[in-house]
Amino acid sequence: MAIKIKKKSGASQAESVTDADGEVVGPDLSVNFPTEDADAFEAATIKTAVWVEDNRNTVIGGFVAIVLAAIGVFAGVQYVQSSQVTASTSLSQALASYEVLVEGSAELEQIKASEDIKAPTVTFESEQIKWQTIYDQSTATLAEHNSGAIASTAQLTKAAAAFNLGKFDEAITLYSGYVNDPSSKDIKPFAYFGLANSYAAKGEVDKAIAELDKFAGASPDQTALVKYEKARLLERSGKGDDAKKIYHDILETEPESAFRGDIERRLATL
After folding, report:
1. First to last CA, the chain
2. Would you say 103 and 178 are in contact if contact means Cβ atoms under 8 Å apart?
3. CA distance 206 to 242
4. What residue spans in the chain does CATH classification 1.25.40 cover?
5. Fold that domain 2-218 belongs to in CATH
6. Is 246:231 a contact under the CB 8 Å cutoff?
7. pTM of this structure
8. Cα atoms in the 13 Å half-sphere on the side-chain side of 188
9. Fewer Cβ neighbours under 10 Å: the N or C end of the chain?
10. How far apart are the C-alpha atoms of 93 and 244, rounded to whole Å?
């Protein structure tokens, strides 16, 4: 992942998210929100909740965006709407750790190269260490809370960490437990997307597509995204002809799709 950094109101802000090929796959994931007086839990969760609210009708592309939303938004929504939520130290640490940059990452190198942005004093040595830290902190939260909004947020956080640590079976178990919880409706679509990516990482394309269909059912405004992700799954699994049909369908039914440029480039190579 690469994120362009710009200075805004004295803080760094992500303009767009790109995939490994350098293609833009998602919108700006940062929002200007007065979090100076909030603790790490409030700052991380409310910030993401505001972003999702502001971008509810925006096409979200790529797993990176989904992971970020899954980690923070459920807690943010519950924090704003429910008096039952109280800050958990271990969960606050996990959410705060998510925003810490990794040494050698494109984001950190761009900040270091800028004369206007002060480099962070706290970083992780590697992605592995970062996600293991988040995994351990969310595990500690689940040991303290076995139900409620904090537990739900910790479960999603741990699922995202497990995925990034290559623990795909555990990620599937955690995401599945969340979507099967009757109280999880607020952010369930993102858990379906997490399941789709976890199954895809295991090479279980049919199961991944089934989860994408569930995501589509819960988020009917994300039709183009679901079609696009299905086509990419089929393309990566060697089913180029099936992928081409979906790519062409997107171009015909949604000619202004944010994925148009990428689809045209992919079609040229199939």
Report:
1. 24
2. no
3. 13
4. 2-218
5. 1.25.40
6. yes
7. 0.67
8. 19
9. C
10. 44
